[in-house]
Amino acid sequence: MEKKPVGRIVTVVIVLAAVLLFISWGVGIYNKIVPLNEKVATAWSNVETQYQRRADLIPNFVNTVKGAAAFEQETLTRVIEARAKATQVTIDPSNITPAQLQEFQAAQSEVSSALARLMVVVEQYPELKATQNFRDLQVELEGTENRIAVARNDFNDAAREYNTFIKLFPNNLIASIAKFNDRPYFEALEGTDVAPKVEF
Prior knowledge:
Blueprint: H1 3-68, H2 73-88, H3 98-122, H4 126-129, H5 132-167, H6 171-177
Helix pairs in contact: 1-2, 1-5, 2-3
């Protein structure tokens, strides 16, 4: 008769130990997901910072071009409109969807296209290209484009590391319980594999 309570106590202790072990394991995985998620958010913030840097340079660049030449108004208007549209697209890094990232990327691509058209037109104005202010802004823009590429790559690396971790078994169990979702990647936009045709 006395063995039954001891057996129950042992069973309760084993069950409690198993539950505590499971909770401890889950907390450990959760605590690994959180920093990876934060790394993705930080990488996204760096992407936004570089795009904002470019957006901040565009008005100075447009004014320099406008002031130095009787410039094609349509080209300048396209750059200004593309910049305005791109700065209106905002994304919450903790909840990025592929559709949102695609919209953001498309808006930024319009800015890049408009700037590329502007640079083609600038080629027709050697006196403009010779001014120090224009050259300085051109170097700033080129440097920013490089920083954007690096920031996008860093974001993709952080998203890949995070996505891989939350998809591995048994991490995916904790990730789904805690509602950690995949992060999309920056991808080349359709048509970017074809070199633009420039005609004078």
